[in-house]
Structure formats: C-alpha cells, structure tokens
Amino acid sequence: MDALERIAAALERLAPPLPAAADPLAHPAYVWRHGTLIAARAFAPLPLGRLQGMDAQRDALVANLARLAAGHAAQDALLWGARGTGKSALVKSAVAHVQAQGGGIALVEAVTDELASLPDLFAAIAPVPRAFAIFLDDLGFDAARDGRALRSLLEGGAEARPANARLIVTSNRRHLIPRDIAEQSSAINPRDSIDDNLALADRFGLSLGFHAIDQDTYVAIVQAYAAAHGLDFDPAEAINWATRRGSRSGRVAWQYFVELAGRHGLKL
C-alpha cells in the first residue's frame, strides 16, 4: 500500500489538479481550460489609443461589446485578415475599455481545440448576471465538416450560446475554411460545396477585416509605443527593422519597440 501511495503522490506532482473554478463575477478575464473557468493572470491589455490604423474596426467592436455589456442585442464577431495586424490585441483592449466605462462584461479565452466543451461553458455562465465575450483566437479549419460544431453553437443548434455570451473569433482566413478549388470541382454540385464552406463565416453578424498596413501607419504604431514610454526613435531604423523581416505589421512594430526599450534599460 505504501508503494501505491508513493506512486499516486508522484503522479499528482507530475500532473497537479486544476485550480478550483473561479468566481464568474470576480475577475475581468478568464481562461476556459479542461472544462474549468480559471481567472486569467495579469490581464493588462494595451489602451485602445495605442492601437493605430484600425479606427473603424475599433469603433465597431467596442460598440458591439458595449451593447452586450448593457444586455442589449449584440452580434457574434469575426475579425479576419493579415497576420500581426492587431486582431487579438484589439479584442482584449476593447473588452478592457468597455469594463473601464462601467460595462459588466468579462473576457473568456477558450483554446480552439476545446470547442466540444463550449456547451459546458455556456451552461456555467448562462445564469450569471454578467456579459461574456468568448474569445477564440487564431481559429481555422481544414475542411467544412470540421467547423460544423461551431456553426451549431453560433445558431441553429440545440445548445446555442446564451443571451449573455457572444463569440469573438480571430482568424487569418476570411471564411475560416480554405476554399479548395479541386474539392469544389469534384463535388456533384459545386455550388453546394462553396455554400458549405462560406456558411460558417456567414454566422457572424459582425465581420471586420484587417489588412496589411502601409509604412506611415507602421511608423505611427512605433511612435505611439515610444511616446507612451518617453523614448525617441529613428524612423529610418524602424523601417529597416521591418524591411529585414519582410513585413510591416503591428506585431513587427512591437518587436522593434521591445528592442528599443531593451537598449534603454526599460522593463515592459
């Protein structure tokens, strides 16, 4: 028996139990992990004003989340487009902005390989007197059939999301599913194949596109970061940084600023 107890203790140390479910009214952000709502550590998104080149997308998402927080009709939202353009940052910043304005809303980030457990999340938060933005980051499917569970959760399923929750999804793909021309041409009815692929994206009432930024916007993003920390920078060097990486994006601007801050001995 002693040997079995030692083995059990060793296994617990290797795979410690998940923390107890967090109070759904107590925290600004959560992570849905292995069927448990866990408080997010150090939820500190960038201020909305720090996000450059996305004014229209920002205003639309904030207005939608504010309606959700107020208990009014709101849309599920899809943020799609080029990588590194600030989609995920905007989701977090928009939720934090609505919270700062007094809105009763929380962010819940769910990993994309746990879609099957979302009905359990919906059941847990449905009776809570608070709104929830369910955040699915960098979502994409390889075939239309893989997205059908999500389609049912958005609408039309027996366990669709409750009135106090909306899905906020980011993806590099506009339609979440690649449009395979070969698959379409081999279908008995090509139109049916195309419609099946587009049906998932059509479930989102709010669709916001993000596109590659130009050089001026890239420099403006770096400028916003630098000004917030009282640093000067050389625009030519910032542009050269992006050129060497073959991309201009908000992510690359942040990476350059991290380099700049490190040179000045700043801790971010």
The count of DSSP E runs of length 2 or more, i.e. the number of strands, is: 7
* Major sheet: 7 strands, mixed
The CATH topology annotation of the largest domain reads as: Rossmann fold
Compute the CA-based radius of gyration: 21 Å
H-E order: HEEHEHEHEHEHHEHHH
Give the name of the CATH architecture of the largest domain.
3-Layer(aba) Sandwich
The protein's oligomeric status is single chain
Q: What count of structural domains?
A: 2
Give the percentage of residues in beta strands: 5-15%
Sheet with most strands: strand arrangement: 2-1-4-5-6-3-7
Number of helices: 10
The percentage helix is 40-55%
| Low-pLDDT segments, ≥5 res | 181-189
* CATH uppermost class of the largest domain: Alpha Beta
What is the mean predicted local confidence, pLDDT? 83
> What is the CATH H-level superfamily of the largest domain?
P-loop containing nucleotide triphosphate hydrolases
- The gross shape turns out to be globular
Protein described:
A hairpin with a 2-residue loop joins strand 1 (29-33) and strand 2. The relative contact order is 0.14. Strands 2-1-4-5-6-3-7 form a seven-stranded mixed sheet, with helices on both faces. Helix content is 43%, strand content 14%. It has helices at residues 2-14, 55-69, 87-100, 118-125, 148-154, 181-186, 190-202, 215-228, 235-245, 250-263, and strands at residues 29-33, 36-39, 77-81, 105-110, 131-136, 165-171, 206-210. It folds into two domains: 29-210, 3-Layer(aba) Sandwich (Rossmann fold); 215-263. It is built from ten helices and seven strands. The chain is α/β, with parallel strands linked by helices. Helix 2 packs across helix 3 (87-100) and helix 8 packs parallel to helix 10 (250-263). The longest helix has 15 residues, at 55-69.
